[in-house]
Amino acid sequence: MSVNAWMFAPILTLYSFVFVLHFDPCFTLMLSTPMSSQISQTFSSLGLESKIIDALPLKCKVPTSIQALATPVIIAKKDVLALAETGSGKTLAFGLPLLSMLLKSDEGSRALILVPTRELASQVSKVMDEVATPLSIKTVMLCGGVDKALQREALLLNPDVIIATPGRLRDLINDDAIHLAHVRHLVLDEADRLLDMGFWPDIKQILSSLPCERQTLMFSATLPDDLGALVAETLREPVMIKANAVNSVVERIEERLYLVNKGSKANVLIDQIKENKWPQVLVFIGARDNADALCKKLNKADITTSALHGDKSQVEREQALDAFKNKQTQVLVATDLLARGIHIDDLPVVINVELPSNPAVYVHRVGRTARAGQEGLAISLVSHGESEYLQSIRDLTQRGLPLAELEKFPVTDKPSSGDSKRAPRDKKANRRTAQKKSVKQFQGKAKPKRAKT
Question: What range(s) does the Helicase C-terminal domain occupy (predicted)?
Answer without folding.
Answer: 265-417
